[in-house]
From TrEMBL:
<dbReference type="GO" id="GO:0043138">
    <property type="term" value="F:3'-5' DNA helicase activity"/>
</dbReference>
<comment type="similarity">
    <text>Belongs to the helicase family. UvrD subfamily.</text>
</comment>
<protein>
    <recommendedName>
        <fullName>DNA 3'-5' helicase</fullName>
        <ecNumber>5.6.2.4</ecNumber>
    </recommendedName>
</protein>
<dbReference type="InterPro" id="IPR013986">
    <property type="entry name" value="DExx_box_DNA_helicase_dom_sf"/>
</dbReference>
<dbReference type="InterPro" id="IPR014016">
    <property type="entry name" value="UvrD-like_ATP-bd"/>
</dbReference>
<dbReference type="Pfam" id="PF13361">
    <property type="entry name" value="UvrD_C"/>
</dbReference>
<dbReference type="GO" id="GO:0005829">
    <property type="term" value="C:cytosol"/>
</dbReference>
<feature type="coiled-coil region">
    <location>
        <begin position="440"/>
        <end position="505"/>
    </location>
</feature>
<keyword id="KW-0175">Coiled coil</keyword>
<feature type="binding site">
    <location>
        <begin position="31"/>
        <end position="38"/>
    </location>
    <ligand>
        <name>ATP</name>
    </ligand>
</feature>
<keyword id="KW-0347">Helicase</keyword>
<dbReference type="Pfam" id="PF00580">
    <property type="entry name" value="UvrD-helicase"/>
</dbReference>
<dbReference type="GO" id="GO:0016887">
    <property type="term" value="F:ATP hydrolysis activity"/>
</dbReference>
<dbReference type="GO" id="GO:0000725">
    <property type="term" value="P:recombinational repair"/>
</dbReference>
<keyword id="KW-0413">Isomerase</keyword>
<keyword id="KW-0067">ATP-binding</keyword>
<keyword id="KW-0547">Nucleotide-binding</keyword>
Length: 699
């Protein structure tokens, strides 16, 4: 144990070591991608426990995604197993959940500590329900939009100024409390509220933690920053890279970096050697990020390896050509030097995965997609888990409503509404109300049958020796098995497989948790509730990864393809006129490039089918920015720049008809300095564009 840690510490460079063994006082490790920030953080955790005899229970380590949290646990585990046990190594959400599990009742809002966490879909369903009950026009107020407004208000991004939305928000809040539910935002926002308003609770956690360590600090938003500040720990250790701040759209605050140094009076350590990528890759990254004016420090990444192979830029003729090229190259790479797991294909938006998925299927390249429909969002999985939630807590009306008629057993909406009204009025659960409300004989029978199912499931689940068995118990007992048996298509088979897949989760629960069955189940359900971007738990398999850039933050791959580098896609069209957005897009591309260890491919295409229409696309401005004279271009090199050169850029005037490569025909409404306002088809509306942008031509 000790030897391994000693060895790892001896291999660190001076500044890394300085950060690892830093004694007291706040510290900010600020450094570019791949410079070993996460490694420094995990080694420090191991060092504190192993060498400084810090009690692991008094260390809090926080990061952003489940994958990253898992990686941190894994790395610390690797260094000092099993002495890391008890350390709080979580995402912000999981940390909030743990705090609220111990203190939600102290919020004085009516929450008990055993509330249930709901996912995005469930939250939307509740909002949809409110909209319906209040007779609100869902076209004018789409549930997703309302959810965003609510989320923005909760996390201090923007206040709600629409009365209808405010009313929905108030009802939503009450409904959640009544049903003992919290959404993801609540886990953070209520933790903050608790720390802010409750001196006892705050003091408890202030004294509990001797050390707090935060990874990916550049992505903290205002609420998260407040939480860290309220914990007021003199050994707060944060690592981050402002160039990789890519969550502004969710409220991440660039200024937190400076704030931390100022308000905590933190010492700053800079790391500058990159241990991940070759110099050719880093040169591209350096060149790119130089174009961001808002950078506070100009740092150049230098590789501790050699130059490596040149990066490859491929300009395809259309999207099929792009996919074919990537597919062939993967076949090529995996036929000698590389495994599938070494390779990632990254894009700006989820919808771009479809053609790659199709092609990989045809050529039998094994792959997984990060963050498609997550495993836990599938209907059958949610249904089975909902059964379990009702078994564990029959007061959970929300989940009871989900399954009372799934599979169908003749309990209609009228019955459910009646049951709910009675339960609300008499302050009891819907489950208990079943015994009191008068229904027709047939309905009453169905309801009784449902109640029996739940009671029997409960008995069996309490008795079973191994948790893994409960999936079979639920599958059969819920009626799901019978229901799927009657359907013989592939879908039904897949559904059955998904339910069976849950067995793996519960088998691990057998090992990882303590207590009786119900207690163990509660812990597993908590863990599952926080899964957002996990597709099963198979990221360790030998498969190619398809992912958006946001989903691979902090990760690394030997080979990276970044695809669809086209104007309007990457950078996305939101950033046409907004320099702030364009800089954010550039940081996203920077994150993408810096995932690559050995080989980097960047591709785009001239023509692409977007939402059923073929569009001529212009190469992304970022391609020009990373350009290197010695870069190698795959055959069929084709420069679009000459073709798109705008020859008549200076003489636009109001009333001119123009053609834009992506938006089609439009009329010039205004020309002012460098900016030209054009009215396109209703589909695109009015756009402000740079006058001499190569995508605009006079007709
Ligand atoms: P990102 O900004 O992408 O999150 P990071 O700064 O957190 O990157 P790490 O993931 O910690 O970087 O490290 C990048 C790679 O470099 C890892 O494979 C890590 O093991 C390796 N590494 C870090 N420091 C050293 C070192 N001193 N010697 C050898 N390898 C190192
Ligand atoms: Mg990292």
């Amino acid at each position: 144990n000790d030897k391994k840690l000693d060895y790892e510490i001896s291999r660190l460079n001076n500044n890394q070591r300085k950060a690892v063994i830093h004694e007291n006082g706040p510290l900010f490790v600020v450094a570019g991608a791949g410079t070993g920030k996460t490694k420094t953080l995990t080694t420090r955790i191991a060092y504190l426990i192993e060498k400084m005899n810090v009690d692991p229970n008094r260390i809090l380590g926080v990061t952003f995604t489940n994958k990253a949290a898992k990686e941190i646990r894994h790395r610390v585990n690797d260094l000092i197993y099993p002495n890391q046990m008890g350390a709080w190594l979580y995402t912000f959400h999981a940390f909030g959940l743990r705090v609220l599990r111990e203190n939600a009742v102290n919020l004085n809002l009516g929450y008990k500590n055993d509330f249930t966490v709901i996912d995005e879909d469930d939250a939307l369903a509740i909002i949809r329900d409110i909209i319906k009950k209040q007779n609100i026009d869902a076209k004018k107020y789409p549930p997703r939009m309302i959810k965003n407004f609510i989320s923005n208000e909760k996390t201090f991004i923007r206040n709600i100024d629409d009365e209808v939305v405010r009313d929905v928000y108030d009802r939503y809040k009450l409904e959640l409390i009544k049903e003992q539910l919290m959404d993801f935002d609540d886990l953070i926002v209520y933790t903050n509220k608790l720390f802010k308003e409750n001196l006892l609770v705050r003091t408890k956690y202030q004294t509990l933690f001797t050390h707090i360590l935060i990874d990916e600090f550049q992505d903290t938003d205002k609420v998260q920053y407040e939480i860290i500040k309220l914990l007021n720990n003199e050994n707060t250790f944060v690592v981050g890279d402002p160039d990789q701040s890519i969550y502004a759209f969710r409220g991440a605050r660039y200024e937190n970096n400076q704030l931390f140094v100022k308000e905590f009076g933190a010492e700053v350590i800079v790391l500058d050697e990159n241990y991940r990528s070759t110099n050719n890759i880093l040169k591209a990254a350096n060149k790119l990020i130089k174009n961001n004016n808002s950078r506070t420090t100009d740092k150049n990444l230098v590789s501790s390896f050699g130059d490596g192979v040149p990066i490859v830029v491929h300009l395809a003729s259309d999207d099929f050509d792009e996919v074919r090229t990537v597919t062939n190259e993967i076949i090529n790479l995996t036929s000698h030097k590389y495994n599938y797991e070494d390779i990632a294909v990254l894009y700006r938006n989820n919808h771009l995965s479809r053609l790659f998925e199709h092609s990989f299927m045809q050529t039998q390249i094994p792959y997984i997609i990060y963050g498609g429909i997550s495993f836990y969002e599938r209907k059958e999985v949610k249904d089975i888990l909902a059964y379990l939630k009702v078994v564990v807590d029959t007061n959970s009306n929300f989940y009871l409503k989900r399954i009372i008629n799934t599979p169908t057993r003749g309990i209609g909406n009228v019955t459910i509404n009646k049951l709910e009204e009675y339960a609300n009025f008499n302050n009891m659960s819907m489950f208990d109300a079943i015994d009191y409300v008068k229904f027709s004989a047939k309905t009453a029978n169905s309801l009784k049958e449902f109640k029996n199912i739940i009671n029997e499931l409960k008995e069996k689940i309490e008795e079973t020796k191994e948790l893994v068995n409960i999936i079979d118990v639920l599958f059969v007992g819920s009626g799901y098995y019978e229901f799927l048996k009657e359907e013989t298509d592939d879908k039904a088979k897949e559904r059955k497989e998904n339910i069976m897949e849950l067995k793996n989760v519960f088998r691990q629960g057998d090992w990882n948790y303590e207590g009786n069955n119900i207690e163990k189940i509660k812990q597993i359900l908590d863990e599952l509730a926080l899964y957002t971007d996990h597709d099963k738990d198979n990221q360790d398999l030998n498969v190619v990864k398809l992912a958006t850039v946001h989903q691979v933050k902090g990760l690394e791959f030997k080979v990276v393809f970044v695809v669809a580098l086209e104007d309007g896609l990457f950078p996305s069209d939101r950033s046409y006129m907004d320099p702030f957005e364009l800089e954010e897009e550039r940081r996203i591309f920077y994150v993408a490039i810096t995932r690559a260890k050995e080989r980097l491919y960047v591709t785009n295409t001239q023509r692409r089918m977007v939402y059923g229409q073929i569009k001529n696309n212009i190469p992304s401005v970022f391609l020009r920015e990373i350009k290197n004279d010695e870069e190698k271009i795959l055959p069929k090199k084709y420069s679009r720049e000459t073709i798109n050169k705008n020859t008549s850029s200076d003489d636009f005037k109001s009333g001119d008809i123009v053609v834009h490569d992506s938006f089609g025909k439009g009329v010039v409404v205004e020309v002012k300095d460098d900016i030209i306002t054009i009215a396109f088809n209703v589909e695109y509306g009015i756009k402000k564009l740079l006058k001499n942008h190569p995508s605009i031509k006079k007709e």
